[in-house]
Amino acid sequence: MQALLFVLALLPADPPARPDDAVIVSRLIDAMKDTDVEVRQNLGAALAKLPLDSVGPLAAALKDPNPARRAGAAYALGLIGEPAAAALPGLLDALADADLEVRRQASQSVGRVLTAGRRRGPAVVPVAGGRK
After folding, report:
1. Is the pTM of this model over 0.70?
2. How remote is the C-alpha of 50 from its chain's centroid?
3. CATH fold of 21-115, please?
């Protein structure tokens, strides 16, 4: 019991304040320059948890000179899905990127952004000469 009290006495009285979401997003996007694909995937998953703050900066990152950051941004936008619809023009532009990984991630993300929240199955098409 005394050991537990000693450990509790060493803990800070107040936990450290969480940084503002905009600061977190900025730091995560900056880290997207990492050449390791798993690191970028993990960063993308974290950014997808902050979609309201992430979509604009991620769309801007699609134009970054660093291809790893562009690929990571495209991947993260795909994880966000339909809320990333505002980034669709940038994702469509990224389909013509000089870097293969950017094109791969953009092509997958376009499908995720477009299909998220959409009705599944064939569309109902009126038939000419139907009932009156």
Report:
1. yes
2. 8
3. Leucine-rich Repeat Variant (1.25.10)
